[in-house]
From TrEMBL:
Listed InterPro entries: CIMIP4
Source taxon at top rank: Eukaryota
Coiled-coil region: none
Protein's name in the database: TEX33 protein
Pfam families the UniProt entry points to: TEX33
Amino acid sequence: SDYEQLGYSLRVNLFQGGPLKSQSLMRDSYTPDVFQKAVIDPRHWHGRKISELGRWYEKFFLDLNVQKAMKEKYG
């Protein structure tokens, strides 16, 4: 039956999960000192500061809410 097949699959452990050690082409391409020298600035993200992104999203969602309210009121 279906239950027996499911039980067999769970006992056999077909779903073993991911590898214990992950590999990355980027990590394999560079020497370890490159990653040690890299400085991650959490306040700077691809040329934009977090506060700028927050203000943009705030305006974006405000605009979406206004559009939704106008559509509900005037159709």
